[in-house]
Design brief:
- By secondary structure, the chain is α+β, with helices and mostly antiparallel strands.
- It folds into two domains: about 130 residues, Sandwich (Immunoglobulin-like), CATH 2.60.40; about 35 residues.
- About 25% of the residues lie in helices and about 35% in strands.
- It has a four-stranded antiparallel β-sheet with strand order 1-2-6-5, with no helix packed on it.
- A hairpin with a 4-residue loop joins strand 9 and strand 10.
- The protein is elongated.
Length: about 170
């Protein structure tokens, strides 16, 4: 019984490649799905860090099939609509959910986000982190803070000890 389950799982796997592009005010993603599927539409979900199943849809759109698709791989164009109630340019993680015609299970893509240093959307894992949010910087500032606080406590205690000795 285990072997057929694994085999079905392998068949259901769909490889995906995301390429983010933009015109002056329009942002879109070229998604290549391998093997090709009958994609009908898509949602953009705002990923949540509050546990599973808490993602919220922010946009629904029609999927546009590109002409240079092959039977082995399908290439689709998905528009990324930015704005107040849509996709924000603040580093928040989003994912595409592609609905498939012959399947009950949708396809979710890798998370993506806006990278202000590159002025465009990128994979969330490639998002450049400002230096002041990097782990080495935070550790260094923490150690320096401990040294300063420790030194201040030492000076205060030493002055207090000298004052007590002078009074005696």
């Amino acid at each position: 019984m285990l072997l057929p389950t694994i085999f079905v799982g392998l068949i259901a796997c769909v490889d995906q490649i995301l390429v983010f592009e933009n015109n002056p005010n329009d942002y879109y993603c070229l998604v290549t799905l391998q093997p090709d599927v009958a994609a009908q539409g898509y949602f953009i979900y705002k990923n949540s860090d509050k546990g599973e199943n808490n993602a919220k849809p922010v946009h629904e759109g029609d999927i546009e099939r590109m002409d240079n698709s092959t039977p082995k791989a399908g290439k689709y164009k998905l528009e990324i609509v930015t704005g107040a109630n849509k996709v924000k340019k603040d580093g928040t993680a989003y994912s595409f959910q592609i609905t498939v015609a012959d399947s009950k299970a949708p396809i979710f893509t890798e998370p993506f986000a806006w990278d202000s240093s590159k002025e465009g959307f990128v994979y969330y894992t490639e998002l450049s982190v400002p230096f002041y949010r990097s782990l080495p910087f935070l550790i260094t500032m923490g150690v320096l803070g401990l040294v300063v606080v420790g030194g201040a406590i030492y000076v205060i205690m030493k002055k207090g000890k000298q004052n007590v000795e002078e009074e005696l």
